[in-house]
Amino acid sequence: MPDTDPIALIGWSVSPMVRSTDKTEAQMLLEVITGAVENAGITRREVDFTCAGSCDYVAGQAFSFVQNIDAIGAWPPKRDSHVEMDGAWAMYEAWLRLQLGDIDVAVAMGSGRSSTADPALIYPMEMDPYYLAPLGTDAASFAALQARALIDAGKVTERQMAEVAARARRDATGNPNAQVSGDFDVDTLLAEDYVRSPLRRHDLPPITDGACAVVIARADKARELCDNPVWISGFAHYSELHYPGMRDLTTSPSTTLAAKAAGLEEAPVEVAELQSAFTHEEPLLVEALGLAPDVPVNPSGGPLAANPIMATGLVRIAEAATEIRDRGRQRTLAHSTSGPCLQQNLVCVLEGGSK
Amino acid sequence: MVQAVQSTIQFPYKRSLGPVVGAFMTALTDRRIIGIRSGARVIVPPLEWDPVTAEELAHDFVDVGPAGRVTSWSWVASPTAQHPLDHPFAFALVQLDGADTSFLHAVDAGSIDAMSTGMRVAPRWRAARIGHITDIEAFVPGEEPVVPDDDGGPVAEPVTMMDYNASITYTLPVTPNQQRAEEANEQGRFLGLQCPVCGRTYTGGRGYCPVDSVPLGSDNEVELPQRGTITNYTIITPVQYPGQTETEPFARVHVWLDDTGVVLGYQPLLDTPNDEVRIGMRVSAVWASEAELKDLASNAEGRLLGWMPTGEPDVDDPDLVDRIQ
To answer: I need a labelling partner for A44 at 20 to 30 A (CA). Which of A57, A121, B82, B88 fits?
Structure first.
């Protein structure tokens, strides 16, 4: 990527992923921020900027992010910001902020307690308020319209979607945070009823409470604090128009643009962590990203194993970073998305080694 | 065991529609569906700007449909409370005749077996139309729009506003610290939680010290005194919003509990005329008796009724006013 200073991930922490936690959102954040700064070998005092991603409608409280600041330890006062987006976008803002060069260390976080209420009733409130929200169209219904378009176009079959689910659940058996894991027979999965045709239960993500925090630092500081920083070699996001009926749902041009801007094509990646919360989104994203067929996708199980809304994308970045720091990979990819039918897409390319 | 508190939040939004969405909604009351021209394309539902180029569009409206072709669909076997129909139906993208985009709405087809991509559908109009996306009850299979016998006809004036009402029931956990703080309140006590790092004390069952970011628990509990000094106050002239029971101006005071760092904010002051409230006044907590408890179901302070002047001499300290937390 041209004209950006090197910045690295130096610590991160992912909370347990559960259907319903007895912790408040601030308590979940308190634990992952403590985990992330300890992982980075620093304390909160050394953090110069914080940015959180969360959603008031999910929390059931206006200005819920104000309470979450309690988890930051903002005394003496800290520079702080918030996005009503996945924590991956909070990390994007933190990365941008560090580009200014006057401060060195930032924490980005994402958190959501989807157990507070029925996600199918919350999601429509985030849509176009004139044409979409009053119809109550929920996330799974939007996803189903895109899945049907892909099936009709011959780009995916219901069997392939079930195979994605079975593989994700199998891969998730090694992930202690997975809510859904194990060996599942594809024919058995295909025998289940539709939830939103052509989507069955296995095509949908679980409902999850969870949080994630990451620590990023400018190059000199990262090298000082950390023996094996994970470098952000490319970071970009693009949005398409909102109304799904005005888009070609069989493509994801914003994903392709973000990948190009993040320099994805400059070298192969060894692993991709994608925010494909619905099975059919995986082949669509793989195509839009131009990934080689042998690149493992979501070895953690991905969002089909645990889907903490507002943190799912940041967890992808943490997983892709773990692949480099703990599993010997050199170049990995993380993706996040927002809006109905993959409206907006973010691509983050990570690299090991020295910069 | 973790307790939870359930609350239902209403979201009653009123939205202004502007010249383009307003024209679309007004046309619906006349049983017409309109799009807007953008170059050679017709966009339905109409937008104020071209969604690709962001060019502001001239208000060049064109009637489309009313019938069209399903370009994608999903069968909803179990509708939610927010869905337009209360029985199984399909969400569908419908490319109305004459449109270059697809319109998202419900299709009332009776059965998933009646649905297919490419099928033709037409709107079933609501009898009493107000200028709202649900003036179309749903689309139905076939070419012919369905008009009710008791059709109410178009509205007389252009539609400029719409209502959107959502209601969501939230369930939030009550943490063990909050439970113990409530139990203390029921017993006429203030429970404090003291940070083991900085020594600051918090009330209300806070789960952590926000300065040091360490969890607080039963090991950190301290009993707080029941007397204190008013550090600041405000006289509130009540606005009659729903739920407001006060009708006359009343005081809310900040009370600094003796020998602690704790200031309780916005506390009721009892039996004191508003013009006698002052900084430095000594007060003590008054709790509801067993007999009074049953009238307190909705009291924000639980069993605490408020604070009563003790009659002790005022504290003379010019810095008191700065202590509001």
So the answer is: A57
